[in-house]
Specification:
The chain has 790 residues and is an alpha/beta fold. Helices cover 59% and strands 8% of the residues. It has helices spanning 2-18, 20-26, 28-38, 44-51, 57-63, 68-72, 81-96, 100-107, 112-120, 139-150, 154-161, 168-175, 178-189, 321-332, 336-358, 370-398, 404-429, 431-434, 443-454, 459-474, 479-486, 491-521, 535-562, 570-595, 603-627, 631-641, 653-663, 668-673, 686-712, 723-735, 741-758, 769-779, and strands spanning 195-198, 214-222, 225-240, 247-255, 268-275, 296-307, 360-361, 364-365. The strands form two sheets. Strands 1, 2, 3, 4, 5 and 6 form a six-stranded mixed beta sheet that branches. Mean pLDDT is 93; it is low at 781-790. The protein binds flavin-adenine dinucleotide (FAD). The site of flavin-adenine dinucleotide has 21 residues, from strand 1, strand 3, helix 19 and helix 20.
């Protein structure tokens, strides 16, 4: 009897939940009301930020079933003939015009000739269409340029990057009136205008939507006429290019107390373009960001009257500024900082790997020591993956996406890995990395790494709020639909939409739970991989598919149990974001490997970086389960996703040694790792010297090996390391007829380049302060080599 009752109750429940009309009249209205009540309140700016941009591969990773065949059909990034020529000529020439040490130490800015060259050759108009005189380069090309400039001089990269990033040109292109575009875009493309964009205020940094700067709608005089406009007051700081800008992009809040416009009294954040020489604009002083010498400074203005048509997009765009900024940021964030960080990492890896091969201690190249190899492998593995993420994220923009979540992943993880690469490089270089001077190729990068971490969304905030927070709403197949249904003005439609979304969500969660169990039981071997996955890589596709299912399930568990509280549980959401990010980085790495034709010699980088990322992804999910406030839910979910413990192992020592070895081996694989980085043809450049010595190493080692018996027998002196002793030794060896002239030259050149490479600078007791000041005085007006404020 009891069984019959239970069966009847169950049947009734199943009927209510599966028969739509019954469910919608008995269950959905209550759930709908509950959902509306518990949904956290969201401001307009939060909504704009969440809804900005598009979703792409991130949506697949959120789905629990990424479609690998579709993913691998995405075209590979490539440059056009015109773009390649620009890289080979203009970009190279510009790099040759700049010396990072001089810029940062002597001039405190870019050499005027280099900056003028950049302006004249169109570097500031890379994103501007040809019809306005711009270069109309692809996002990938833009990324290649910034990356290469970053391997030479950070100030150069930043000053070129910013006009092509979130700022006047980008905003005009998307939202400007025809008149604004026709006037400003040609001037920006030719470098006649230097733009900057001022959003950040002293009391509104990360929370930029809280800017207090205002523009009051009022009548005022402009060019001798009484016109409708805005009285704007602002106080901004950290504005890149601000001190030399001729065109100030400005974000402020519009208020209309007298009701002069039909937009309400507080329409909100608005963007305008103000000529820097407009009366009342205060500009020109500089900040000093960690000895980086790109121009950066504060700007302010008090009751500065501007006409309405200086608003980007005209009066109808009043109050739309935040949405405009968020949309442009979604695309720009994919390019600037990831590219700059990869450039810095390539510089670090090129210099450090060569140094490891040629620098000897205990009679052994330091790159042969296991401890050094461990750090070197991290550098190589991280760089391969960073570059893969940079390429894929830029490609997304070229495919028309404004990838809000992916750009945040790229920004956070590529800059963080850039920091790790530089830190490892510094550890390996020892004193050579510490003592400043023109012979030190890494110290400035080390010093300036925190800048990339901080700008365009400080990293802690990006990890905690954006990657998962935005992803969970935008990229999740159902959450945004559920949320939108609660704001639907038509109650009936809202209920129907909610019913479809909510119960679709339920089915989705159950399917992921079942799939997670199946994958756990089969060790992930049944998870999906692309039809044409190469054997040794297939397991990584499967691993990401499995992780994607676990991640989707844990996302839903977190949202169902924590609800709106998840927004404040940053340690939970940031770990979920880490897992999502690792899946994206692994996808990018697999695609790069495919795009480059499955180069066997690159396989160690691919294996190392993916195994490292898989390990990090599972640790992130494990961290969620360990710290999840509802212990029962955590234990139950663990049973579904990791019933037999964590499945992935960290890269082995053997694999790490293979990566380190590949980095210290001349050839195509190393060149692919460092592709697109600048290498000077100049013996004053420590990286160039290292490369030259490294290029001779194989021959030198061959000679040393051949002469070993002669040294052992005492016929020849032991081969020395220092340059003067080496010269003597070579003469002695030559006299004994044991080396050909070519070998003599190789030994001698090797010793000379190595000597330059291990050289560390020293200075007079005042560290050249007096001489530098004198040089600056002599080189100042009228033909100043440094950029002077406009
Ligand atoms: C060199 C440089 C160049 C810049 N260029 C420009 C420019 O051209 N134009 C412009 O408008 N701005 C620019 N900025 C400003 C930059 O975007 C801000 O510095 C950045 O947004 C962070 O703001 P903040 O420095 O005031 O830090 P804060 O906002 O004070 O943040 C401090 C810390 O708190 C963390 N944090 C804040 N909120 C949260 C949260 N909810 N959860 C977790 N952690 C959180 C942050 O991650 C950070 O670690 C520049 C800054 C620098 C340093």
């Amino acid at each position: 009897m009891i069984l019959w009752i239970i069966a009847a109750v169950l049947a009734a429940i199943i009927l209510v939940f599966t028969y739509g009309p019954l469910r919608r009249s008995l269950v959905t209205p209550h759930l709908y009301a509950l959902f509306k009540r518990i949904l956290p309140a969201m401001s307009d700016t939060e909504r704009d930020a969440l809804e900005a941009g598009t979703t792409w591969w991130d949506a697949d990773l959120f789905s629990g079933r990424p479609d690998w065949n579709k993913f691998l059909q995405i075209r590979r990034p490539a440059l056009s003939v015109e773009e390649q020529s620009f890289m080979d000529n203009e970009v190279r020439q510009l790099c040759e015009m700049v010396d990072d040490w001089e810029a940062t130490q002597v001039w405190q800015g870019l050499p005027a000739a280099a900056w003028q060259f950049a302006r004249d050759k169109g570097f500031l108009g890379m994103i501007i269409p040809k019809m306005y005189g711009g270069k109309a380069f692809s996002a990938y090309m833009h990324s290649q340029v910034v990356m290469q400039l970053s391997t030479r001089c950070s100030a150069l990269a930043v000053q070129v990057m910013v006009p092509n990033s979130l700022g006047p040109a980008e905003l005009l292109l998307h939202y400007g009136t025809d008149q604004q575009k026709d006037y400003y875009l040609p001037r920006l493309a030719k470098g006649e205008e230097i733009p900057c964009f001022a959003l950040t205020s002293p009391y509104a940094g990360s929370d930029a939507a809280a800017i207090p700067d205002t523009g009051v709608v009022c009548m005022g005089r402009h060019e001798g006429r009484e016109v409708l406009g805005l009285r704007v007051s602002w106080n901004k700081r950290y504005i890149t290019l601000g001190p030399i800008a001729t065109l100030l992009g400005l974000a402020f809040r519009v208020v209309d107390p007298d009701g002069l416009l039909p937009v309400g009294s507080t329409p909100g954040i608005t963007c305008a373009l103000i000529p820097a020489n407009h009366p009342g604009v205060v500009i020109g002083r500089r900040h000093w960001p960690l000895n980086a010498v790109f121009q950066n400074g504060p700007t302010s203005g008090k009751d500065v009257f501007i006409p309405m048509d200086w608003i980007i997009g005209g009066p109808q765009k009043i109050g739309k500024g935040w949405r405009m900024l968020m949309e442009c940021l979604a695309a720009g964030r994919s390019i600037s900082l990831p590219s700059a960080s990869v450039g810095t990492a390539k510089l670090a890896v090129r210099g450090t790997s060569a140094y490891c091969a040629i620098r000897r201690q205990f009679n052994t190249a330091i790159g042969k020591f296991e401890g050094v190899q461990e750090a070197l492998a991290r550098m190589g593995g991280n760089l391969y993956m960073m570059d893969a993420a940079r390429r894929l994220s830029a490609l997304a923009v070229d495919l028309g996406e404004k990838p809000a979540v992916i750009s945040a992943i790229a920004k956070y993880h590529v800059t963080e890995r850039g920091r790790a690469v530089v830190n490892d490089g510094m550890d390996i270089l020892g004193g050579k990395g510490i003592c400043m001077g023109p012979s030190n190729f890494l110290a400035r990068a080390y010093q300036q790494i925190p800048i990339a971490i901080t700008v365009e969304g400080a990293n802690i905030l990006t990890r905690c709020l954006i990657i998962f927070g935005q992803g969970a709403i935008r990229a999740h197949p159902y959450v945004l639909k559920e949320m939108r249904s609660t704001t639907e003005s038509d109650q009936r439609k809202g209920l129907l939409d909610f019913d479809a979304a909510f119960f679709g969500h339920m089915r989705f969660t159950c399917a992921n739970a079942l799939r997670a169990v199946w994958y756990s039981l089969t060790g992930g071997l049944t998870a999906s991989a692309p039809d044409k996955a190469p054997g040794e890589m297939a397991r990584y596709y499967r691993a990401v598919s499995r992780l994607s299912t676990c991640f989707a399930l844990m996302t839903d568990m977190s949202m169902f149990i924590l609800g709106g509280d998840l927004k404040r549980r940053e340690r939970i959401s940031s770990r979920l974001g880490d897992a999502l990010s690792m899946m994206y980085l692994i996808s990018a790495t697999l695609k790069r490997y495919e795009d480059e034709g499955r180069q066997e010699a690159d396989a160690p980088y691919v294996h190392w970086s993916i195994q490292d990322a898989l390990q990090k992804a599972q640790l992130a999910l494990d961290g969620v389960l360990q710290n999840f406030p509802n212990r029962f839910a955590a234990a139950f979910t663990r049973l579904l996703v990791f019933p037999f413990g964590l499945p992935y192992e960290a890269p082995s020592d053997k694999l790490g040694a293979q990566v380190a070895q590949a980095m210290q081996t001349h050839g195509d694989a190393r060149e692919r790792l460092l592709a697109g980085s600048f290498l000077a043809d100049d013996l004053r450049d420590p990286v160039a010297c290292g490369e030259l010595a490294f290029g001779l190493l194989a021959m030198v080692e061959g000679i040393e090996h051949r002469l070993k018996p002669a040294v052992k027998s005492g016929k020849l002196q032991p081969i020395p390391q220092s340059l003067p002793e080496m010269e003597r030794w070579i003469t002695d060896a030559a006299a004994q007829g044991v080396m050909t002239p070519e070998e003599r030259r190789a030994m001698s050149d090797f010793a000379r380049y190595t000597d330059l490479s291990v050289h560390v600078d020293d200075f007079p007791p005042d560290l050249n302060a007096a001489a530098d000041a004198d040089q600056r005085r002599r080189m100042s007006a009228p033909a100043s080599p440094v950029i002077t404020p406009a």
